[in-house]
Amino acid sequence: MNIVDKDNNVKIYNRISFRVYLYFAIIICLFAATLGMMFVQLSKTNSKNTYRDRLRSKGVSIAGILNDYIVYENYEEYPAFWMTLKKVETSEMDIWIVNNGDENSPMKELADTDLTNMDLNSSIKSVLHQSLEGNITDKVYYSDIYKETVMSVGVPVYDGNKEIVGTVLLHSPIRGQTELIKNSLRMILISAVTALFVCFIVAVIFARKLTKPISKMRVTALGLAEGDYSLKINSNQQDELGDLARIFDILSERLAQSEEERKNLEQMRMDFFANVSHELRTPITVIRAYTEMLIDGIITDADKIASNYERMLKECKGMERLVGDLLLVSKLQNPDFAVEKEPINLIQIFDDIVRNATAICSKKNITLNIKKDSESVMMLGDYDRLRQMFMVIFDNAVKFSKENSNLYIKITCMDTIRISIKDEGVGISKEELPYIFEKFYKSKLRQNANGSGLGLAIAKQIAIKHNGKIDVISELGKGTEFIFTFDHMENSYEIELEDEVAASLSDDDC
């Protein structure tokens, strides 16, 4: 089931670039709408304040002039003033000069508006009432007379005794406010469209920068899914996307390493079966041949029959030993398998090896030289496994040594336990050294013709199980030296926990 679109045929509304632009556009629109509402409200407030200040200023000025006419009783010049005022101001506002209703009021000579028969709305009545009480007041309301929003301002008029004798009412439509709001909204709309266009360009650039590493990650992920672990993003971005890209590269490297290890393990498995098949084919063929000859009665001589049985038994023992070695290698390579350790003296192991190896060395007249720092080198380990490990190396040393040569064993104990087994044999070439511990690896020398190729592999696994290591120094024609190293400090600490053993050690024990 293909769950990934390899051709990246993603619908436009599902693409990151579109979503980035959409988010930008939503933010711009919300910002423009919020700014527009705030601007409209501020425009209304500012327009009202401007009208209020202007009308109040004019009302106070007119009321002051009327006060002068009243105080000085200069009524003859008033009509000329009034006519001039009407010509100048009536284009912008209506001016009502209103008496306070007192028949004896000096304002009666100046009033031009009779409110007795006029049907005034509540806003004008409120302004008139408050101004006659001595307050400069104003109201904004919708006027049926003017068919638009109007501001009315009332300013009281005083006589020479500072008594209110009337009021000046100024009515002015708030012209231009609607047009101002429309112009403001138009500018905001133009600004929003321009911002959206700029936002589109910025969003495209930003989205391209954002999606470029993501696209590389997508291609890399698809390549990894298909088994191509050589793909790398190689991003230099110092942000979260850069970190993610570098994690992809690390993942690619680790997958490549895992794939290489898998191939190596697979090759080792195939080589293992091939080697096992090869090692078992020869003895099985021999046993089958001798069995067929016995069954067919080809061999009738009793001595030859007995010899054939002995050869068949020898091959069976060889196969048994091979299978046993295979099982042992498999067991030692299992991480869950742990050898049973106990305090042992390495000197006793080598004394045992030397006693059993004297006959082998005498056949080739090999002189065995042993050097040891102490008669007791203690460590925790499995006696039989360690003896088997050293015996494998010892047998190989004798096998590949020349006649009348020397074999050296050196045991030292300081911070670590170090055992050296050195021969004067044929040596190992530099090309072969990296492979000598691999299963079924055998040199082409005639001395190794009958070997299974499992001895050194077993020896290495035993050393690993004892937290040790094996180093090899060899040169063709000059011999080989195997060096075993074990962590003495850790083993000494564990040995001290064994009270009986620790008490039995002498002062010169290592």
Describe the fold and architecture.
55% of the residues lie in helices and 16% in strands. It starts with 15 loop residues before the first helix and ends in a 6-residue tail after the last helix. A hairpin with a 2-residue loop joins strand 8 and strand 9. It folds into three domains: 160 residues, Beta-Lactamase (2-Layer Sandwich), CATH 3.30.450; 94 residues, Helix Hairpins (Orthogonal Bundle), CATH 1.10.287; 163 residues, Histidine kinase-like ATPase, C-terminal domain (Heat Shock Protein 90), CATH 3.30.565. The C terminus is likely disordered. The longest helix is centred in the first third of the chain and has 57 residues. The protein is built from eleven helices and eleven strands. The radius of gyration is 56 Å and the shape is rod-shaped. Helix 7 runs parallel beside helix 8 and helix 8 runs antiparallel to helix 9. It is of the alpha+beta class. Strands 6-8-9-11-10 form a five-stranded mixed sheet.
